[in-house]
Amino acid sequence: MDDVKSHKRVNDILLGPLERPALAWLAARLPKWVTPDILTGLGLCAGILIALSYWLTNYNKNLLWLASFGFFLNWFGDSLDGTVARFRKIERPRYGFFIDHNMDAVTSILVFWGLGLSPYVDFKIAMLGLSSYLLLAVFVYVLTYVTGVFRISSSKIGPTEIRAIAVLANTIIYFVGNPKIEFLFGAYTLYSLIVFGVAIMLFGLFITNIVHEARNLLQAEEKGKT
Question: Which residue range is the domain that position 129 belongs to?
Fold first, then answer.
């Protein structure tokens, strides 16, 4: 395995043209006391806020807005911790990679648990979404180990786009409601179907990427034998 410092970072996301200049602007203006560790902690705390907000929508649907705000805070902390470290030239590549992505995993579990405990999403479908998300995350980490390429995005989709989908879904459900839609195999709420669609999309990206990268690695290793 290559040293973490030599990893190539790829983040070609749909919202990149908006996100990259925004992160650069914020990193240059944050107070010195706002360290990468504080930002990572903020991202985790935002995950807790999201989970609690979704759960508490059992009592008040207005907390959907608090969940959406939590996604913004999570984006702020999770996206800026590495950006600030690189801007200030205080990178700790191995420590940062280790802490950041373990906290990402915990946050993902919290968010999907919160969704499943809300009145909007069937818990089984929320767990399906979590499984697909974590499968794609495992692919990214294994690919980083094998090739030295840390690919955050896949087909222009990354964590930022997933957060944007969640905020959009919260907004739709708040104003439109969460009607149940009948199928031959059962009735599911609109929000459950949105999460199911995201789960299928992520699982499809996982399968597609596995096949593509396995083919590339096999070809590279066969060439190495000749």
Answer: 4-225
Burial 117-147 (b: 16+ CB within 10 A, else e): bbebbbeebbbbbbebbbbbbebbeebbeeb
Query: Which has the closest alpha carbon to 99: 51, 56, 48, 41?
Result: 41
Look up the CATH number of the domain holding residue 84: 1.20.120.1760
Give pTM, 2 decimals: 0.93
Q: For the chain, how many structural domains are there in total?
A: 1
Give Rg (Cα) of the chain.
19
Residues 51, 99: Cα–Cα separation, whole Å: 21
User: Is the pLDDT at 2 greater than 70, yes or no?
Assistant: no
Cα–Cα distances in Å, from 223 out to 148, 181, 212, 216, 220? 19, 53, 17, 11, 5
The pLDDT value given to residue 4: 61
